[in-house]
Amino acid sequence: MAPEHALDSVRREAGYRTVAEVAALAPRVAVLDPGSTLVAGAVEFGDGVVLYPGIVVSARGSGSITIGAGTVLGPGPVTVIADGGRVSIGAGVVLGPGGVTIVARRGSAVEVADEARLHGGAFVEGPASFGAGAQLLGAVAVRDVVLEGGDDHAAPDPDARGGVIKGTGRVHGARVGVGEVIGVGAGARPDTSEHVVDRQRAHHPVDRAI
To answer: For the chain, which terminal residue's Cβ has fewer other Cβ atoms within 10 angstroms, N or C?
Structure first.
């Protein structure tokens, strides 16, 4: 038996798998750099998940994380933490490029349905629910939000796409319907009640994706 790597015990004490255990996720999971990837034991991956370098997936205490088939984490610093809470990420989700952080603390849940897309500095704190095809774009911090599911961002009809929040700032307590978008920043007030919910069609031609 090969001797334990010097950092293996450090990883185990912090609640993460060893480098060899992360590497052993391949080929079912595409781990591009096991040495820079931190994965807790209580994490379930579907087939074809891609983990770029620098990814952190941490389930603490009673927390649990499931990541569906074909989901991509990265490129960029992507962190998913279930600190006593639950994070469920569906199939074909894209987290990145750019920083993405998802946190579910005790008693809360973050649900991200199939084909959703989060990138560019997005921060999500549970409770939060992203329906199929929903998008969180830019350095937006959200909590207690619901983005209704619909078609993905490439769908030709903006009225059929999942809900979108984009821009820079904070959004708490928002509900965004199918074909709707909240733009944050550019003078928007931090109070969620002051954010304007608009139709995606008003910002994007029918034949263009967001």
So the answer is: N
